[in-house]
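Project standup — Tuesday

K.O.: blocked on the structure for the chain from last sprint. Re-posting the sequence here as requested.
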Amino acid sequence: MGKTGSVLFRRTARAAAAAALVASLASCGVIAEQGRPQDTRQASPPDTASAAPGSSAASAAAPTPKPTPTPGAGPACTAIRCTSVLVTGDMLVHAQLWEQARQDALAAGAKGLDFGPLLEGQRRYIDKSDLAICHQETPVALPQGPFSAYPSFNVPPQIIAASKAVGYRACTTASNHTIDQGTEGLVRTLDVLDASGLEHTGSYRTAVESQGVLILQTPAAKVAVIEAAYGLNGQIPEQAWQVDMLDAPAMIAKAKKARKLGADIVLGVMHAGDEYASAPNAQQQEVAHALVDSGQFTMVYGHHTHSVLPIEKYKGTWIVYGLGNGVTELSPTYVVNNEGLLVRAQFSQDATGKWTASDLGWAPSVIVNAPYRWCSVASDAPQGVCASPAADAETRQRTKSVVESMGAAAAGAHELLISKGR
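H.V.: unblocked you, prediction finished:
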């Protein structure tokens, strides 16, 4: 729904206050949890920066030793260095989902809300990737609410704790709903992300933050994430820098900054498109192609339409136009709203030092209810039957036909069969 020197970004005292805010939630250079390296946020001075479904760069001048890719993090690496990145669509929490989270907490003998079971099916994919990035579509409320859904979202912050717990390391935050709750909601959301240990980009608390570049370290590479949204549902932020808006020249400028800060891989992320469509609109194609034409981006992907969109290989660079929904309520009207796409790209560095996406795998997903769960309908059925064998097959085929409608299969994109290691 919908700069010239490098300094390490340090969390402000606000993050300490945020820790108190999330104390009631359910819930690398240096190797941290799940064996993933610590994030590094790069900034610069402002320019004047088969169970069923229930059950942040240092100077590039310094020589880098050859790392060992994370075991199981994608196809066998035959290049000098490889790393894998997983991305998913909109985390769009409606009342049905927080009621399910309440039931799941009670079933575990706990109070509050537990979104863990909703997301649990994604863990197996995330664990097989070096880096996983989600999209936090909406602002979050205080832990006890009040909560609200469409058209002005204010959702339980426990969804962020669950995203961290399942293995995500960062989330993009620019969307048409980013300022649904004004500056207060925007700041609260970023504070909760900080307190939960999730890096973020796309929306900002200060002008200085907005000039920064999110660079995430994997065992083999530094990955920059640059995200922007097409609009804010007619709303106007208090400050123009609070949300990155979709603008190819601005995104390219930030990508160039990321490269100067040592980024090996730069991901361009677009929150754009026509809702429930099965093809990208003119804006999506124009911006995505402009980003690729700049030579600064290693891959481009997007979300917002609440439907899966095609994958295109344009001038040797993958563009994933729409990942559909990560999580959402079931729509009785738009079946595509209930579907999503999980994409894992393996990036490889060649002898010249250039990084490209050497492998692109996608897994179709669906949201089921009673209970509400994210469920993979990939043909290896890693979670067993989701809705029903027939419905799962229909979802898989519908997703496949859309994903491959711009030549993705012929260009090498394939279904991600996690249980078979490919």
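K.O.: great, moving the ticket to review. Residues 182-196 form the longest helix (15 residues). The domain at 7-60+71-420 is CATH 3.60.21.10 (Purple Acid Phosphatase; chain A, domain 2).
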